[in-house]
Amino acid sequence: MEALKTYDKANISALVNSREGETKIGEQVLPFSGWEQLKDSPAHFVLLGIPEDIGIRANHGIAGAATAWIPALKALLNTQSTLFLSGNELMVLGHFEFPDPENTHSKNIRLENTRLENAVAEIDEQVYPVIQKIIAAGKTPIIIGGGHNNAYPILKGCALGLKKTMDVLNIDAHADLRPAKGRHSGNGFSYALKHGFLRRYSIFGLHQNYNSSSILTEISQNPNINAVFFDDLLAADHSYLMELHPLLSVLTNPTGLEIDLDCIENVLSSAFTPSGFQLNDIRKIILQTKKKFAYMHVCEAAAKMSDGRESSATAKTIAYLVTDFIKAQLVATGSR
Fold first, then answer.
1. Number of domains in the chain
2. What is the CB neighbour count within 10 angstroms for residue 132?
3. Which residue blocks in 137-169 are alpha helix, DSSP H?
4. Domain containing 64: what range?
5. From CA 180, how far away is CA 195, in angstroms rounded?
6. CATH number of the domain that 160 lies in?
7. pLDDT tens-digit profile of 23-61?
8. Half-sphere exposure of 196 (CA within 13 A, CB side)
9. In terms of C-beta distances under 8 Å and separation of at least 24 residues, what long-range contacts does 278-282 make, across chains too?
10. Please, what's the b/e burial string for 78-108 (b: 16 or more CB within 10 A of its CB; e: otherwise)?
11. In terms of C-beta distances under 8 Å and separation of at least 24 residues, what long-range contacts does 56-59 make, across chains too?
């Protein structure tokens, strides 16, 4: 776990804009104090950043997801601490720092892609033991990415920590079920299924235009994969939550919540979409779904893309989802 950089109180305080007469969440959150103390910490949730876009680039996407972590963390820490959410429910563990694979500018595209895929496999080996430790301590990890490739080591870490196979609800425009050959952001769930860490996989909001025929066939033929398409949601007369319920009802194992922010309209990401969920749709799903989740993983969004596009809204978007998740899970677990 040499890539993990843990935060102390000073690291956190440096990101908080204090104001007289107010208390920010960042002034209330708990810093990491060691693995031995984690189990006894009063914090129910552990925040972890995976700021990388190596998996996205290995999947031929546009780099930028590595830029979301620090702005999102700042936005979260500068949220007001109130009776609705004080902040002491949360421990800020830290983030990973992964070396970027050297770009040789080779004309051999396959060689370059192999270099990226190998780096993603190395990321897997760093991430899953950290998730395993958090889960084994009885805490709920909240992970801000980063690419969706990290779903695989997160699921692996959870399954090993709980000693149970996982289920997943993934709110996403893409199924990420490309062949389990060469690691990248498009096959995290394929690997989790292949290696037995994922049992039932529910996908909400798939776009018919952006999932291949082979993936659609895999979904239709695998009884453990269920999907609702965004196109069908647009055609339905009733609420998104009514369509979501059947997907949730089959998830009886410990369940992870995955939110790929390319499913939200106009959120900056490698797979930016002009047509998708509104942010408040996702907030309603989080707040109104009365299910206990083993973790939440928010991924694929960016504050700045490698092609020059920028968005200051990304940070607050992620902060809203994190605070909503904590509030909803405190209710779902009877802690509030």
1. 1
2. 19
3. 151-162
4. 4-332
5. 10
6. 3.40.800.10
7. 999 999 999 999 999 999 999 999 999 999 999 999 999
8. 3
9. 279/317, 279/320, 281/240, 282/171, 282/321
10. bbebeeebebebbbbbbbbebeebeeeeeee
11. 56/147, 56/148, 56/149, 56/184, 56/185, 56/270, 56/300, 57/116, 58/113, 58/116, 58/117, 58/119, 58/120, 58/149, 58/182, 58/183, 58/184, 58/185, 59/147, 59/149, 59/178, 59/184, 59/185, 59/186
Query: pLDDT tens across 146-196, in order?
Result: 999 999 999 999 999 999 999 999 999 999 999 999 999 999 999 999 999
Q: What is the Cα Rg of the chain in Å?
A: 19
CA quadruple 191, 194, 200, 201: dihedral sign: positive
215 conformational bin, left if phi > 0, alpha if psi -120 to 50, beta if neither: alpha
Q: Tokens 């563990």: give the residue.
A: 93
Q: Which amino acid is at 303?
A: A
CA distance 126 to 123: 5
Tokens (6 digits) for 163: 């000693």
Distance CA 130, CA 145 (A): 15
Could you give the angle at the alpha carbon of 174 between the alpha carbons of 172 and 175, nearest 5°? Answer: 95
Which residues, listed in sequence order, are joined to residue 276 by a DSSP beta bridge?
Answer: none
* Element spanning 232, H or E: helix 230-235
| Predicted TM-score (pTM) above 0.85 | yes
Nearest residue to 154 (alpha-carbon basis) of 55, 230, 67: 55
Distance CA 73, CA 65 (A): 14
